[in-house]
Prior knowledge:
The chain is mainly alpha-helical. The chain has helices at about 5-20, 25-35, 55-70, 75-90, 95-100, 100-110, 115-140, 145-150, 155-165, 170-185, 210-215, 230-240, 250-265, 280-285, 290-295, 305-320, 320-335, 355-365, 370-385, 415-430; strands at about 190-195, 195-200, 220-225, 265, 275, 280, 395-400, 405-410. Helices cover about 55% and strands about 5% of the residues. The radius of gyration is 20 Å and the shape is globular.
Amino acid sequence: MTLAHDPRAAALETAYTVAERLRDPARVARVTAAGCAEVPAELMLPGWQPASVLLGHPGVSLLHTACARDDEQWSAVAHAHLAAAVAAAPQAGPAAVGNLVLPALLRAEDTGGYARLLDRSVGVLADHTRSRVAALRVRRAEGLSYLDYDVVAGLTGQGRVLLAAASRGHERAADALTGVLALLIELTEPLRVDGVDVPGWWCAPGRYVVPRDRAAYPRGDFNAGAAHGVCGPLALLSLAHLAGHRVPGTPDAVRRITDWLRGHAYDDGRGGVSWPGRVAFEEETGAAPATRDATARPGWCYGTAGIAGALGLAGTALADGTTSRQAVTALAALLRRPVAELGGDDPGFCHGLAGVLHAGVRLAARTGDEELWRGADRLAAALVSLYDPESAFGYRQLVRTPAGPVLLESPALIDGAAGVALALLTYAKSRGPGPQDPPPLAWDAVFLTS
């Protein structure tokens, strides 16, 4: 592969090279499964899940669907990955069937068809989500796990898919979406815990799935991140409001979250602001000093990139210039940092360079801010430079462990080659002067960045 000097051309060439390496669904599954078999169990990595949009064929299909918008040859490849996901979904349960909706919607927008798949998968997702909403409403007084409502595994991620389907006329999706939004609005209302009123997205310590969290947060915590925290609901409520799905109380809920985030923002020492990824119960209630930098990160999952991106959506939804400017200021300052501080040698979307790049690209496209674009140019070039021709898919997943970094062959959207390629492709296609309207539906809906 010969990379062009123009960062957009280099990003585009790299994205298509990765897409080529991900062309064959059988090879992708075989290589990934072999690598996952060698991962130590104590790392607790989710591994290859063929029906998962974040970890399997549906996410790879999103890359080829994006490529097919310029070159029809990729359409058959996108269909092949989606077909592989359909074959695996029945064994993976109703949540996995819901993972088919977004790729199928995007395929249907470009090619027509997929009506039967969409009717079935939207119906399964809607019924599953309604049941979860009912169960979580009962459990809320005892405290929830962030996995109950987050983007990655919870109601917010499912709600974004329902929003996409509802906006395209699926009535069952619209009905289920209303329930999701209503519960997320309730989640922003104060909750009484140990005699103190605290934000309703408190994570109960008994609900942690990672044992070390119970030691770190014995009285629970408040997750600020985009992947597992309150910025996921903030983004969904904002996007639904902008799309016309307006449940009573939405603006107040968006305002409560933005006020909380602005209250926890602090000067990053570089002309911008940053946020802690997580706030302990003791910190929130004033019983202990803030440990801001201990959990602050740059990336999408828990860091400034994801938080600023959600605030940018909230500022638009509320027509709140102050919140919108804070989002731009935070991301511009983040993109000025050395690449080593933004994820360094980790190319992935979740907590690496691709997620930071994409947050900058989406906000730059919405605002036309040239400083954001300059930062995106620099970061895109750095991401292209990490392309590894010796890797099966061009980029490997980096896993940091106490014993040192572990590199895995991963095609996944969230932490592997497909996510990196889509971030580069979106940068190359979005880079331009002036504000741009976001597409009505795009692959990154899965991350609540559009």
